[in-house]
TrEMBL record:
Residues 1-23 are annotated as: Disordered. GO terms for biological process: branched-chain amino acid catabolic process. InterPro entries: Alpha-ketoacid_DH_E1_comp (IPR050771), DH_E1 (IPR001017), PdhA/BkdA (IPR017596), THDP-binding (IPR029061). Its cofactor is thiamine diphosphate. Coiled coil: none annotated. One of its GO terms (molecular function) is oxidoreductase activity, acting on the aldehyde or oxo group of donors, disulfide as acceptor. This is Pyruvate/2-oxoglutarate dehydrogenase complex, dehydrogenase component subunit alpha. SUPFAM superfamilies: Thiamin diphosphate-binding fold (THDP-binding). Keywords: Oxidoreductase, Pyruvate, Thiamine pyrophosphate. Residues 62-343 form the Dehydrogenase E1 component domain.
């Protein structure tokens, strides 16, 4: 499914769907866990153009993204990656939002939005470079209009707000979107970003995936109110959406993007989902999480509910399922092959891509390090020294 040139033009957008705040705000849901398509008088408008073919495409996207995640997790367990942040259970939040974006919108994500990266066209092997330890980052942000993952919790929200201020100054109608988790809402960077975004009414979408756990701390400890209600204190309208419902996520994101493009400023989206796996592959969630909770959320799986909806429509054919399986298998093979064949970085590669222009301070460090390597009497190290000079 291509990025959103949604064809919303023509009909007027309903103003009543422009975001709600406060304790009475309802969770937006368009597909139930059982796969029933439920009507919503305000949000149906925003997904009225989604055809059966596009629904099948969203199902494929989520299935492939899950396979990417499972394959990367397996690669880490087998010693091919140093670490991996699983997104299992959050496929609808990532695919549903990413597939609403235009190519000129810019994404600022955390380390878990690998599904968003897939939808933006990031090369499969580039997803793994940093986690394999072969590069400080994975790709050129400007080739896909998505920044490389931010490890510092919440820092990407500041980057997104700053970028959105630049969009505003340029007079463009593109939008910056930033992804972060429920735990990040307690970080100063996120709150400062929201202050600036509200003050200057910049075109930025704050997309918070509430997966219920900030490493080992539950969301109920992070906030005693709904996270969406926090935005009201900054004067930012918010939406609270079923993050396991791909159509509801698309509708909410389109509302936010439409507001931003029309000069209406920022929006905060709370996508209520669940982290089915560990925080990272270095984490053991069984130490702090009730297995009954995991079982409850497994019944709300984002992929199985779309499969159930397609089945109700008579679209979940054996041919479609085989086609998606073949695509997921091919993607997994390509990613695994690229990972295991990835060449090790050279020692002096650490100095590459640090600055865009020559820097004497960095050159001095590189010279010292190359001479240090050469001191071991290794012919290769001597070659490295000569190359550095």
């Amino acid at each position: 499914m291509s990025t959103d040139e949604t064809g919303q033009g023509g009909a007027s957008a309903p103003t009543s769907a422009q975001g709600t705040s406060g304790p009475a705000a309802r969770l937006v849901q368009l597909i139930t866990p059982a796969g029933e398509r439920v009507s919503h008088p305000e949000f149906d408008f925003w997904v009225r153009d989604i055809t059966d073919e596009q629904l099948c495409s969203l199902y494929e996207d989520m299935s492939v993204v899950r396979r990417i995640d499972l394959e990367a997790t397996a690669l880490q367990r087998q010693g091919e990656l140093g670490l991996w942040p699983p997104l299992l259970g959050q496929e609808a939040a990532q695919v549903g939002s990413a597939r609403t974006l235009r190519s000129d919108d810019f994404v600022f994500s955390s380390y878990r939005e690998n599904g968003v990266a897939y939808c933006r066209g990031v090369d499969l092997v580039d997803l793994l470079r940093m986690w394999r330890g072969n590069a400080p980052s994975g790709w050129d942000p400007y080739t896909v209009n998505m920044a490389t993952p931010q490890i510092i919790i919440g820092a990407q929200t500041l980057h997104a707000t700053g970028y959105a201020m630049g969009i505003q100054n340029d007079g463009a109608d593109s939008v910056a979107i930033t992804y972060f988790g429920d735990g990040a809402t307690s970080e100063g960077d996120v709150n400062e970003a929201m202050v600036f975004a509200a003050s200057f009414q910049v075109p930025v979408v704050f997309f918070c995936t509430n997966n219920h756990w900030a490493i080992s701390e539950p969301v109920r400890l992070q906030s005693h109110i709904q996270l969406a209600d926090r935005a009201a204190g900054f004067g930012i309208p918010s939406l609270r959406v079923d993050g396991n419902d791909v159509l509801a996520v698309m509708a909410a994101t389109r509302v936010a993007l439409d507001r931003a493009r029309r000069g209406g400023g920022p929006t905060f989206i709370e996508a209520v989902s669940y982290r089915m796996g560990p925080h990272t592959t270095a984490d053991d969630p069984t130490r702090y999480r009730d297995p009954n909770e995991l079982e409850d959320w497994a019944a709300k799986d984002p992929i199985s509910r779309v499969a159930a909806l397609l089945d109700r429509k008579g679209l979940l054919t054996e041919g479609l399922q085989q086609q998606i399986k073949d695509k997921a298998d091919a993607v997994a093979r390509e990613m695994r092959d690229g990972c295991t064949r990835m060449p090790d970085p050279e020692p002096l590669d650490v100095f590459k891509h640090v600055y865009s222009t020559p820097n004497s301070w960095l050159d001095r460090q590189q010279d010292h390090y190359s001479r240090y390597l050469a001191s071991f009497g290794d012919p290769d190290a001597a070659t490295l020294e000569e190359g550095a000079r």
